[in-house]
UniProtKB/TrEMBL annotation:
Bilayer-spanning residue ranges: 44-67, 74-95, 150-173
Domain DUF4126 residue range list: 8-177
Keywords: Membrane, Transmembrane, Transmembrane helix
Coiled coil: none
Taxon lineage: Bacteria, Pseudomonadati, Rhodothermota, Rhodothermia, Rhodothermales
Native species: Longimonas halophila
UniProt xrefs under InterPro entries: DUF4126
Name listed for the protein in its UniProt record: DUF4126 domain-containing protein
Amino acid sequence: METILAVAVGIGLSAAAGLRVFIPPLGANVAALSGELPLAEEFAWLGSPLATAVLAVAALIEIGAYYIPWVDNLLDTLATPMAVAAGTLLTASTLGDASPFMQWALALMAGGGSAGAVQGGTVLLRGASSASTGGLGNSLVSTGEAGGSLLFTILAIIAPLVALAAFVALLVYGVRRFRARRPSVS
């Protein structure tokens, strides 16, 4: 059961990283410092006071930069590979009891995959917002993404199975909505 919870925490944090790259590592850092989140031994640095300072500054800069018109679209391009990397690392950091192969295989597939899926959805959403509002609606999208990232981060730490269920539900909803919008080939 511990492994399932660790994977659920990792996927929840990774999904949050698909919305904002630095909020979930900051949340994991705070949870590790408070003793709520055990980290794999090789990720002890994530639970350090120095990491708190670095991640807090990075999160504030990231959140603020998404409110600058056109910079937000540029950041989406940069954030996509960063989100996958963050999701992979966050999931790996929760799987300390797993063998190295299992730790990194799960981290890459589940963590990187969930972060990439969420980030891909946000890129599409921001593109649609930019196209339909000339970028004026992007601040609402940015606020929703930051709030969603914070919510998923907290859920992943205090109720990982709920976070996992919410991620799966959102993923299914997104896929169904995407398929419904595609023109059918006849």
